[in-house]
Specification:
This protein is of the alpha+beta class. The protein has two domains: 32 residues; 132 residues, no CATH class. The protein contains one helix and nine strands, in the order H-E-E-E-E-E-E-E-E-E. Strands 1, 2, 3, 4, 5, 6, 7, 8 and 9 form a nine-stranded antiparallel β-sheet that branches. Strand 5 and strand 6 form a beta hairpin. The radius of gyration is 23 Å and the shape is globular. It starts with a helix and ends in an 8-residue tail after the last strand. The relative contact order is 0.14.
C-alpha cells in the first residue's frame, strides 16, 4: 500500500512540470492575442464604443475596425480600416468609412518572449466616405510600440506615435 502511494506521488511529480509548461504556453498564446506586435498573420475585428462624450447633449460615438497584420521577417505590417459614427452636433451624427491607417514596425529582439518592441513608419491614407469620419489628407509619421505581457492577467501596450506630417494640402485645420 505504501509503495503504491509512493508511485502515485512520483507520477504526479513527474507530470507536474509538463502541466505547468502547458499552462504557461496557453497563457503566452492568450497574451499574444492582445499584442499589437505579435509576429504572426492575423485578421481582427474590434469595436470601440464611447458611451458618453463631453459637451452638450447625451451623444455617443462608435468605431468598428477591420485590422490585418502580416509579418515579413523582422518587419510587421499592420493596417486598420475603421467604420465610424461620430456626432456632428445638435443630436445628429455621420457614419461611414474612416481613413486607412498602416504602420510597418521593425521588431527588436527584447530577449524576453513576453515583451515586444517595434519602431517604424506610419501612413494614413484618406479613404473616408464622409468629411466627419476622416482627416481628408495623406499623413506620414513614425510609431514606436512597446507591449508587455509578463502577467497572464494584465497586459499593457504603449504607443508613441509621431506627429503626422501632412504631405498634401487640406482645406480644414490640421
Amino acid at each position: 500500500m505504501k509503495a503504491r502511494g509512493i508511485r502515485i506521488l512520483m507520477i504526479c511529480v513527474a507530470c507536474c512540470p509538463a502541466l505547468i509548461l502547458a499552462q504557461e504556453q496557453q497563457m503566452s498564446a492568450e497574451a499574444q492575442a492582445n499584442n499589437p506586435l505579435a509576429n504572426f498573420q492575423a485578421f481582427n475585428l474590434q469595436n470601440y464604443y464611447i458611451p458618453e462624450l463631453s459637451g452638450p447633449g447625451d451623444q455617443t460615438a462608435n468605431s468598428f475596425f477591420l485590422r490585418y497584420a502580416q509579418p515579413f521577417g523582422k518587419w510587421l505590417m499592420r493596417a486598420s480600416l475603421p467604420f465610424n459614427r461620430f456626432p456632428t452636433g445638435s443630436g445628429t451624427s455621420k457614419s461611414g468609412v474612416g481613413d486607412l491607417d498602416a504602420f510597418f514596425a521593425y521588431l527588436f529582439d527584447t530577449g524576453t518572449p513576453t515583451r515586444s518592441f517595434g519602431v517604424g513608419p506610419q501612413f494614413v491614407v484618406p479613404t473616408a466616405s464622409e468629411d466627419e469620419t476622416g482627416a481628408g489628407k495623406y499623413q506620414l509619421g513614425g510609431a514606436a510600440v512597446y507591449f508587455d505581457a509578463a502577467s497572464p492577467f494584465f497586459q499593457w501596450a504603449d504607443c508613441l506615435p509621431g506627429v503626422p506630417m501632412s504631405v498634401a494640402t487640406a482645406t480644414g485645420p490640421m
